[in-house]
Amino acid sequence: MRQPVGARDFSVIPVSGIKGLMTSTLSARRFIFHTQGVCPPEIHFNIDQDRIHAIRFMGGGCPGNAELVGQLLEGRHIDEVLTLTEGLDCRNNTSCPDQLARAIDEALRGKLLPVARARVHSDPETRSRMGIIGDLNGDADTLRTIISDMRDHGVESIVCAGNLGGDPVHLSRMISIVRDENLHLIFGEQDRFTLGRPSPAGLPQPDQENLEWLRQRPHMFTADLGGYQIFLFYGDYVQNILGFSDFDPYALEINMVCGLTRFMEDESVFPALAAMTPQFTADVIIFGQKKIWRRWQVGGKTIISAGPATSIGHPCWGLLHHTTGELKFREIQAGA
């Protein structure tokens, strides 16, 4: 038998600290709760100033009933929500509202921690020519050469697909170029390790403001290219970000590319991929983890692997452009 609302044991947190926890630690925070015994596998909700917002039952169940519950509870005080939902039984001695009550209870006890969303940046302008830069390995000269070549090709927007590379000092210099040239940059897997690597004592030290700027870069990037929705991410590290949900925008694209196809290496599952593409938000999916330049057409979608910024000794980059209603992609060797 579960305890009634008034009898809940807050021994994990001193009673005097519960109010402070609710108004500071839980204030304006997002939570994801993995359910048990009900159809929706996840419940998403926000808590702001002791009130609950944006309740969503994700991935199953009756969408109409779930939406109604969310609307009826929107903005209510946590105590009132617990009173209304705790102990309601649908099946398996629980229900969707009861699972929500358990989620709130775990949040209050500190067992369910608030999570941020993976960061997504959207280019506010509609473009017709976009340049893509892959792994740079700390090579500032190559970056400058590619930028110049892209300008010569009339590129309107330049996106670095993560992993600027190099030690912290060289990385900081690369960041300065990216910022000076107003390039878009997503956070790559290797960038995390480089940021965590100290610069040896006695050697030049990196610009800490540049490194902090990099830490705040988005994990994903979206753009409108002549009416085509472009989505770019680095690789499967995004799936391991605390707060990543299989029900977030673009999660389906990420899961299909990284998991189902193993970055498009397993062509035997392409029919299954094609069956899922009608549910994609993006028309073009670009990833950088495999470090090869290649393009696939599956189920009416374009999937691109962004390769390294140097190929066979030459700086190279990808051009994605929209002309006369058609989307085209090609790899370009700078200066060729």
Write the layout of secondary structure elements.
Layout: H1 15-25, E1 29-34, E2 42-48, E3 51-58, H2 63-73, H3 78-85, H4 96-109, E4 120-127, E5 129-133, H5 140-152, E6 157-160, H6 168-180, E7 184-185, H7 189-195, H8 208-215, E8 220-225, E9 228-233, H9 251-260, H10 270-276, E10 284-287, E11 294-298, E12 301-305, E13 310-311, E14 314-323, E15 326-333
Parallel strand pairs: 4-8, 5-6, 6-7, 9-10, 10-12
Antiparallel strand pairs: 1-2, 2-3, 5-14, 8-9, 11-12, 13-14, 14-15
Helix pairs in contact: 3-4, 6-8
Which tags fit this structure?
about 325 residues; alpha/beta; Purple Acid Phosphatase, chain A, domain 2; 2 domains; 6-stranded mixed sheet; 10 helices; about 30% helix; globular; disordered N terminus
| Class computed from helices, strands and strand pairing | alpha/beta
Report low-confidence residues grouped into runs of 5 or more. Answer: 1-26
How many structural domains in the coordinates? 2
CATH topology of the largest domain: Purple Acid Phosphatase, chain A, domain 2
* Overall pLDDT confidence: 89
Q: Whole-number radius of gyration?
A: 24 Å
Q: Percent of residues in helical segments?
A: 25-40%
Q: How are strands sequenced across the largest beta sheet?
A: 4-8-9-10-12-11
The strand count comes to: 15
So, the CATH homologous superfamily of the largest domain?
Metallo-dependent phosphatases
Counting DSSP H or I runs of 4 or more residues, the number of helices is 10
What's the CATH architecture name of the largest domain? Answer: 4-Layer Sandwich
Shape annotation: globular
* Main beta sheet: 6 strands, mixed
Pattern of helices and strands: HEEEHHHEEHEHEHHEEHHEEEEEE
CATH domain class name of the largest domain: Alpha Beta
Q: Report, as a whole number of angstroms, the end-to-end distance.
A: 74 Å
Strand content: 25-35%
